[in-house]
Design a protein that fits this description.
This is Beta-lactamase-related domain-containing protein. By secondary structure, this protein is α+β, with helices and mostly antiparallel strands. The protein has 15 helices and 14 strands.
């Protein structure tokens, strides 16, 4: 995609900085900051999301893989490209229109489709944005199964700084379900995240480890827990802090031990933190496309064999797949976020009517992230569909709907035995 007019200005930042000594060849070596590139410019977004450990303004921590590798098989004869074309979708056009940098379909451990665009390769990590929340809520479930916490405990039990605040009686599961009823002080009765929210511009760059929680003390209560749905990222900062304190180790280390290693990830990941080194938990996880599929396949083990997959309480993912709590203010068409999905404990659950009814019948559920990231797990087909994207418009819900319908088409093809 050719640069737009505004990208010409950004290109100026690519010019090396030169010093005065032109006789010295090394003086021609310059530097520039990737973070200075315009993130909303389609010419740059795939690059920026692919190199997030270098472009985050604060810092990241490494999430290390272990010695076990989950291997996928690949049979060219079972490739889905032809069937997708016969279903009326031109894969090249679809990936181009919505800025997809990668798409993978894994069924019962076999790769049915794996495509990359815009310079991404199988080894490229991409920022999966809010799909990070699905990993964090899974860690919460694992910690419950280990007896380290209860999802029905109030957050103040683990984060003592939040006692005597609006957060005090909010349970961990209410946080994970974006139903805390707590918002920041504002003239807006229900303030929403904006492109440059206060926590990102003022608090996350702070090296004071107490800065964010001190800000949380100023929040106000606008509803009882579970009464309202408000997709609000600070909920997951509070949740991540609680999990880390309950298990007695940094979130990234717990993520490495309980998901990255047993899931058989091939590559290390990177998790965004504040400048004080605290994982925020609501986004910023950089991971390869195939490792997204490995996580999905790890979750699917829970549906095949009791006690397999992530060590979560019995029926945890089954309840999510059935949309037990994605009702009322969290229901599809009501939550005001992704109209075709309801929200449930860090995951999205498709509506049981309309274009995605078949996905609901197949007990599908998934994670979505800004700029078109998608991970949908389809238990009845033992299939995972993962999409990474460099779409330039963070506010567009159109790309989520098209990703969901694309996934529904793939599910229909597989359900027909093709």
């Amino acid at each position: 995609m050719p640069p737009t007019e505004k990208s010409d200005d950004a290109n100026a930042s690519l010019t090396p900085l030169q010093n005065e000594d032109s006789s010295n060849p090394s003086s021609k070596i310059g530097t520039f900051q990737l973070s200075s590139l315009i993130p909303d410019d389609p010419a740059f977004t795939p690059l920026l999301y692919r190199l997030r450990e270098e472009t985050f303004q604060n810092r990241t921590v490494q999430v290390r893989h272990g010695s076990y590798l989950r291997r996928f098989t690949k049979d060219p004869a079972r490739n889905l490209v032809k069937a997708i074309s016969e279903a009326g979708i031109n894969l090249d056009d679809f990936m181009s229109e919505y800025g997809l940098t990668g798409c993978i379909v894994v069924q019962e451990g076999a790769i049915r489709l794996e495509e990359y665009r815009h310079g991404n390769t199988p080894a490229s990590r991409n920022d999966i944005q809010s799909i990070t929340k699905s990993f964090v809520s899974t860690l919460m479930a694992i910690a419950q199964q280990e007896g380290k916490l209860s999802v029905n405990d109030p957050v103040s039990r683990y984060v003592e700084e939040l006692k005597d605040t609006a957060w005090a009686d909010v349970t961990l599961r209410a946080l994970a379900s974006m139903s805390s009823g707590v918002v920041e002080q504002s003239d807006d009765p229900r303030p929403a995240d904006i492109p440059n929210p206060y926590w990102a511009t003022h608090l996350y760059p702070s090296q004071d480890p107490n800065a964010v929680l001190e800000w949380f003390k100023t929040f106000r209560k606008v509803a009882e827990p579970w009464e309202e749905f408000h997709y609000y990222n600070p909920n997951y900062y509070a949740l991540s802090t609680a999990i880390s304190r309950a298990v007695g180790e940094p979130l990234e280390d717990y993520l490495s031990r309980k998901i990255w290693d047993p899931a058989g990830m091939q590559y290390d990941g990177y998790l965004r933190t504040t400048a004080a080194g605290r994982a925020d938990g609501h986004g910023g996880l950089s991971i390869t496309l195939s490792d997204m599929a490995r996580f999905g396949s790890f979750v699917l083990e829970d549906f095949k064999t009791e006690g397999a997959g992530p060590g979560v309480p019995k029926g945890w993912f089954k309840e999510i797949s059935e949309g037990r709590t994605s009702t009322g203010p969290r229901a599809p068409g009501v939550n005001g976020m992704v109209s075709d999905f309801g929200y449930e404990t860090g995951w999205w659950v498709p509506a049981r009517e309309g274009d995605l009814a078949q996905l609901a019948e197949l007990k599908a559920f998934g994670g979505t992230g800004m700029y078109g990231q998608s991970l949908i797990i389809i238990p009845k087909l033992q299939t995972v569909v993962a999409i990474q994207s460099g779409y330039h418009d963070a506010s567009s819900s159109d790309v989520y709907s098209h990703n969901a319908r694309f996934t529904a088409t793939i599910a229909s093809i597989i359900a027909q035995g093709k």
